[in-house]
UniProtKB/TrEMBL annotation:
<dbReference type="Pfam" id="PF17871">
    <property type="entry name" value="AAA_lid_9"/>
</dbReference>
<dbReference type="GO" id="GO:0034605">
    <property type="term" value="P:cellular response to heat"/>
</dbReference>
<dbReference type="InterPro" id="IPR025662">
    <property type="entry name" value="Sigma_54_int_dom_ATP-bd_1"/>
</dbReference>
<dbReference type="InterPro" id="IPR041546">
    <property type="entry name" value="ClpA/ClpB_AAA_lid"/>
</dbReference>
<feature type="domain" description="Clp ATPase C-terminal">
    <location>
        <begin position="559"/>
        <end position="649"/>
    </location>
</feature>
<dbReference type="Pfam" id="PF00004">
    <property type="entry name" value="AAA"/>
</dbReference>
<dbReference type="InterPro" id="IPR019489">
    <property type="entry name" value="Clp_ATPase_C"/>
</dbReference>
<keyword id="KW-0547">Nucleotide-binding</keyword>
<feature type="domain" description="AAA+ ATPase">
    <location>
        <begin position="33"/>
        <end position="174"/>
    </location>
</feature>
<dbReference type="InterPro" id="IPR050130">
    <property type="entry name" value="ClpA_ClpB"/>
</dbReference>
<feature type="coiled-coil region">
    <location>
        <begin position="244"/>
        <end position="271"/>
    </location>
</feature>
<dbReference type="InterPro" id="IPR001270">
    <property type="entry name" value="ClpA/B"/>
</dbReference>
<dbReference type="InterPro" id="IPR027417">
    <property type="entry name" value="P-loop_NTPase"/>
</dbReference>
<keyword id="KW-0175">Coiled coil</keyword>
<dbReference type="GO" id="GO:0016887">
    <property type="term" value="F:ATP hydrolysis activity"/>
</dbReference>
<dbReference type="GO" id="GO:0005737">
    <property type="term" value="C:cytoplasm"/>
</dbReference>
<dbReference type="GO" id="GO:0005524">
    <property type="term" value="F:ATP binding"/>
</dbReference>
Length: 660
């Protein structure tokens, strides 16, 4: 492929924001010996674009005299190896290509993914041997491009090949530089899709791509996001009206189905809702986001109301064609790709942070001191007062079992990331031995599991926006603290394969029962221990450099009986919601609540046994009523305590009462 010919035809444009790198590349190409460049960089930083920019400058005579009239050819490595049947055929083909290139005056050969010519696993390593003497003689000028990982693993060990190149490392551009890069090419995308993109949308696209697209770098990540969004909007303009009309027709048919049973109608409406979610673009689904939780809708009347409102909104939205890409469309595409709820991406982070303490109190009760301490530290971190690149915060949750440490981690995941599942949990009792602790950052070369990489790095790469919980950390082998120091200090961790895990968008939580008796004694004496006092106690078990890097040590005090009822009510609410979905109401007297709550409380285990009491004394008896047919849709279940102190059940079904 002749890149200079493409540039002269207008298919390749100038490069923006890489003046320094372009100058360095031209300087290297002007060397007397070994005028060969090896461009390294992560995926998406613009390695190929840098060569395209050189081709553009050559065509427009914006280069020194020694590059005037130069021609850049790109080697198609796929065609080079395709169909090769006998040994040495690839090498013969490459010799023929080099021979033809020599006939062209001032020819430059560009080889993208140049590491494939040296990779023994792909059987192409002989091609690299052909290039070495050609490069050393200086008869051939080559520009190669490869990723940082492939360079380190394949090219750098081959010193004979590596020393014939001068390495030019491309770093990810800053947001400001990336904005200029994207703005220079976005016009072509706008013309292709027939949509407008203003400067504010470009900046927002870069911000979203940098924050949520972790497998690619700027500017490519932002260009991809904008291109993907414009494609989705273009499809909406062409097909959305018909899709909404079809769904509206199906809903109208169901509204006219008077002969169907309620349960059958509800199931068909659920299927229609699933069809709506799968058929429509994420951009359209983002329009109909509401506070209604569709999992709780259990009647046809409620389903008709919800679906009619949704389709009315969609008809209004699709009434006019979209002419401009905005933040809403990009956020919807990001949400669909990453699984992060669109509300989290669009909503103001300041509001979420300021309301976080209230959100956490709804789930974690009786630990107001801990919650305030945690939220204050998070606010300090997110205000920009911490070191760039560090995690949002590194917190040590200290206290007895059953006081809400793990529950706080789940609540924090939901409050910060709108999803309780946005939590990566490690039970550190599984990492007691040194060899098992090595699994976090990967097995050494030659050992089983080396190719899989590190467990911790893999998980944070899959879920960069998460609460990372290291439970019962005192049980882990001492070598894991070296990993924690790196994560807390730099916010990054590399495994044995060189893959990088970025913790800058994560919260790190450590939990431990160490010092629980001391905390209990302090509480009984009416004292609130200071951070220094807690560090002194914990210093007997943990290294000082580990404790010094923590954002905050958060004490959890034993549960009191006054708080116990709140915890019981939170747990009982889950049972009530399950019954409500089946059209059954659950009522419980104050005496029954107190009796069951106290059954589930022991100072030693905290409130952890409350869930077991609800399972044994409430869930199991109710399941017998349901399976036995005594409790049906429309029924009411009343729980009280009789004179003997035992639970008494009243099952009401259509005026009939069954006492147990």
């Amino acid at each position: 492929m002749d890149k200079t010919a493409l540039a002269s035809e207008g298919h390749i444009g100038a490069i923006v924001g890489r003046d320094s790198e372009s100058r360095m590349m031209i300087e290297i190409l002007g060397r007397h010996s070994r005028p060969n460049v090896l461009i390294t960089g992560d995926s998406g930083v613009g390695k190929t674009a840098l060569v395209d920019g050189l081709a553009f400058d050559i065509v427009h005579q914006n280069v020194p005299s020694y590059l005037e009239g130069a021609v850049i050819f790109e080697l198609d490595t796929g065609s080079l190896v395709a169909g090769a049947t006998y040994k040495g055929e690839i090498e013969d083909r490459l010799k023929g290509i080099i021979k033809e290139i020599r006939r062209v005056n001032r020819a430059i050969l560009f080889i993208d993914d140049i590491h494939t010519l040296l990779d023994v696993k792909q059987g192409n390593s002989g091609a690299g041997g052909i290039l070495k003497p050609e490069l050393s003689r200086g008869d051939l000028t080559v520009i190669g491009a490869t990723s940082v990982d492939e360079y380190r693993k394949i090219i750098e060990p081959d010193q004979a090949f590596n020393r014939r190149f001068e390495v030019l490392a491309l770093q990810e551009p800053t947001v400001d530089v990336a904005a200029g890069m994207v703005a220079s090419v976005i016009g072509r995308y706008s013309d292709f899709h027939g949509l407008k993109v203003d400067h504010a949308s470009v900046i927002e696209g870069i911000r979203l791509a940098k924050r949520y697209v972790k497998d690619r770098k700027l500017p490519d990540a932002a260009i991809d996001l904008l291109d993907r969004t414009m494609s989705a909007v273009k499809m909406i303009n062409e097909t959305a009206v018909g899709d909404v009309a079809e769904l509206t027709g199906r809903l109208a048919e169901l509204e006219g189905s008077f002969d169907k049973a309620e349960e059958e109608l509800v199931n068909e409406l659920r299927l229609l809702h699933l069809s709506l979610q799968s058929k429509l673009s994420p951009v359209l689904l983002g329009v109909i986001i509401s506070e209604t939780d569709t999992k709780e809708i259990d009647s046809s009347e409620a389903w008709f109301k919800y679906l009619n409102q949704a389709l009315d909104t969609l008809r209004l939205f699709t009434g006019e064609k979209i002419s401009k890409v905005t933040t809403h469309e990009m956020a919807a595409i990001i949400s669909n790709k990453t699984g992060i709820p669109i509300g989290k991406i669009q909503s103001g982070e300041k509001e979420r942070l300021l309301n976080m303490e209230e959100l956490l109190r709804r789930r974690v009760v009786g630990q107001d001191t801990a919650l305030k301490s945690l939220v204050d530290a998070i606010l300090e971190s997110r205000s920009g007062m911490n070191k760039p690149g560090q995690p949002i915060g590194s917190f040590f949750l200290l206290g007895p079992t059953g006081t809400g440490k793990t529950e706080l981690a789940k609540a924090l995941a939901e409050a910060l990331f709108n999803d309780e599942k946005a939590m990566i949990r490690f039970d550190m009792s599984e990492f007691k031995e040194e060899h098992s602790a090595a699994l976090l950052y990967g097995a050494p070369p030659g050992y089983v599991g080396y190719e899989e990489g590190g467990m911790l790095v893999n998980k944070i790469r899959q879920q960069p926006y998460a609460v990372v919980l290291f439970d019962e950390i005192e049980k882990a082998h001492s070598s894991v603290y070296d990993i924690f120091l790196q994560v807390m200090d730099e916010g990054k961790l590399h495994d044995r394969l060189g893959k990088e895990g970025d913790f800058s968008n994560a919260i790190i939580l450590f939990t431990s029962n160490v010092g629980s008796q001391w905390l209990l004694k302090q509480k009984e004496e009416g004292k609130n221990p200071t951070t220094i006092q807690m560090m002194d106690v914990m210093g007997e078990y943990f290294r000082p450099e580990f404790l010094a890097r923590l954002s905050e040590i958060v004490p959890f005090y034993p549960i009191t009986e006054a708080v116990l009822m709140k915890i019981f009510d939170i747990q009982l609410k889950g049972v009530s919601e399950l019954l409500q979905r089946q059209g059954i109401e659950l009522k419980m007297s104050e005496d029954a609540r107190k009796m069951l709550a106290n059954k589930g409380f022991t100072p030693k285990y905290g409130a952890r046994q409350v869930a077991g009491v609800i399972r044994n004394y409430i869930r199991r008896p109710i399941s017998r009523f349901l399976i036995g047919g005594q409790l049906k849709r429309g029924g009411c279940l009343y729980v009280d305590v009789d004179a003997t102190g035992e639970l008494h059940w009243d099952v009401k079904v259509e005026e009939a009462v069954v006492a147990n």
